[in-house]
Design goal:
With 143 residues, this protein is mostly helical. 73% of the residues lie in helices and 0% in strands. It has helices spanning 2-15, 17-26, 30-40, 47-54, 61-67, 74-98, 103-124, 133-140. The longest helix has 25 residues, at 74-98.
């Protein structure tokens, strides 16, 4: 009897997991939404990697921000946006060799780019972010 009750409870939890996920996502900061989107689609493995390679911060940056309910500052949002733009360009180059295999990555990265651009425009009135040679060189590991 207890096993049947546990199975029924598990089924009920599974049935409403999508609405719960949507509710949780609606309460998240943009930083958490971006990380979740990238992590969910295997574009980033850990919060430490996200902090270092996407936001150009220390490996503990994401954990600290999340703990204090912080979000992207303007410079970090721009860093992340620039990283996304570079990764989109690299995915387009990979597409020439791999074909449609990278289309889902390009779609997800484009969604993240839109989220960041919308945030910068609506919250900070920043309409565009110019790429510099330094940014591209840093992302490609040339500096």
């Amino acid at each position: 009897m207890a096993a049947a009750d546990a199975k029924q409870r598990h089924t009920k939890v599974g049935e409403d997991s999508q609405p719960r996920r949507q509710l949780r996502r609606s309460m998240m900061t943009l930083m958490e939404k971006v990380y979740d989107q990238l992590h969910e689609h295997s574009l980033v493995e850990t919060a430490e990697e996200f902090s270092r390679d996407w936001c150009w911060r220390s490996k503990s940056w994401f954990a600290v921000q999340k703990n204090k309910k912080g979000d992207f500052s303007i410079p970090v949002a721009i860093n992340c946006l620039n990283a996304v733009k570079v990764k989109i360009a690299m995915a387009h180059l990979k597409r020439k060799k791999l074909g449609n295999l990278v289309d889902s990555d390009i779609r997800i990265l484009s969604e993240v780019r839109s989220m960041l651009e919308e945030h910068l425009l609506e919250q900070h009135r920043i309409a565009a972010v110019a790429e510099t040679e330094t940014v591209v060189a840093k992302m490609l590991g040339n500096q």
